[in-house]
Amino acid sequence: MPKDPFDRFDLNLLRVFLAVYDARSVGGAARALSMSQPGLSTALARLRKQLGDPLFLRGATGMEPTSRARSLAESVRGILGTVDRDVLTPPDFDPASSRREFRIALTDIAEGIYLPIALQALKDSHSRMRLRSVFMAPRELEEAMAAGAVDMAAGFYPDIKGSAFMHRRIALHSFACLASARHAELGARMTMEQFSSLPHLVVEATGRSQEVFEHFLQRRQLRRDVVLTTPHFMSVPVIVAESDAVAVVPQALADFMIDHPRVKQVQLPFKPPTFQANLYWHRSAHSDPANQWLRQALIREFPRLQARAYDRNGRAPERP
What we know:
The chain is α/β, with parallel strands linked by helices. About 40% of the residues lie in helices and about 20% in strands. The chain has helices at about 10-25, 25-30, 35-50, 65-90, 110-125, 140-145, 190-195, 210-220, 235-240, 250-255, 290-300, 300-305, and strands at about 55-60, 60-65, 100-105, 130-135, 150-155, 165-175, 175-180, 200-205, 225-230, 245-250, 265, 275-280. Strand 8, helix 8 (about 210-220) and strand 9 form a beta-alpha-beta unit.
């Protein structure tokens, strides 16, 4: 099998060629490239051998290019210009002028937490960039992030593992119980007997956080009377408000609904489990300026998110 002619080709030889072509002098080319004259002569000899042409001949006015050298000059200049501009120059990112679309993997609860922050960052930078929230199965999400089809993920994604992914902790979350504000049996805190006997609404959503609570109940051998199972979180406050059923949901979701006039948070009779939410991105996007910009915009808001104390362990917040 014939050898690929580019296997041993050194791109730096093209810089030597162009320097000699422009200076018409080995010494002038060496000074332009901050090389020794013997070193440049050696490099030029290598290039002559690889191209099979002397390229430059000594003349009355200096090193005169051969016809092959003259035919190559503009192509070499274009190649080096492209390398310098598109390969060696760090990519520039201006949030105010960019029209990039960021694709962020989020669960429905995470959308309510992180999209307002991201939208505010776009507004503050006077940007015309766009956001797209996506949801994917774990394996599909990993592949999409590796391929650059998804820029990052935010929330509880226990399946994203391995050295190919980087993450930053966002917050610690727990669970709270929602009940009708007019629930006759419940005060600020339910008893264990009430937890076992009251009818429960259970959400089996596409996110993974509810699995944490289900596994917790199994380990503790805690039982409850499940009368309704739904894949949707947004119907929870309406159903709870119109019935005696209660629903254990992530604390962040319970906080979204705290202003619902017919729903209240009730403290659970035990300390519920916690789960960690992270910001994830693929290593291939770590140095991307746009990805860095959005990550930093979200990270700046982490202290404010942590102040919401989503790990209150079911303790209802004080109403203003």
